[in-house]
């Protein structure tokens, strides 16, 4: 596919920072796009989803949470983490599931991501949050930690503090969550391409490559 025939696609990724499959799926997409470049050019937009909207701000031990929520044993929980860690290695992401890793309420993270999108830094912040949570095992329920992450991607620290201390972006995040629910999305990650096509789950690069190639061909044929 030549540059002249390049297809441009919009990809909305419905995601929660607390979801390991979201970063696994994204890295698969990233690999597929690299292989398809420059024939396909994608604009990436992250949309909010809360895996645990009722979770208290302090969060819960991740293993305890998974055992309670999904009815699995502690052994199954450990095995799941080992499988996810391997998938992470396969796509170039380092999962470091420390014993004290916690599942938290992610609403404030989504508010910061909505703001970062206006600053052209949403993707950078999303990646930094995934790494902080799953690789570095820092607590994302701590405002001071969030401010450091915001600063690390070049966002304004004072503005971020103002958001965390207010109700800014609450309405926007709620509206975007409702839009996803209205679309019938009930799990993450979900990748919506050109508002028409949907791919769910932490798919491989080959799967994304196949789907994006088919969509690109449809675009070229119109």
Automatic annotation (TrEMBL):
Pfam families: DSBA. Gene3D superfamilies: Glutaredoxin. GO terms for molecular function: oxidoreductase activity. Residues 10-212 form the DSBA-like thioredoxin domain. CDD domains: DsbA_FrnE. SUPFAM superfamilies: Thioredoxin-like. It comes from the Bacteria. This is DsbA family oxidoreductase. It comes from Moritella marina ATCC 15381. The lineage of its organism: Bacteria, Pseudomonadati, Pseudomonadota, Gammaproteobacteria, Alteromonadales.
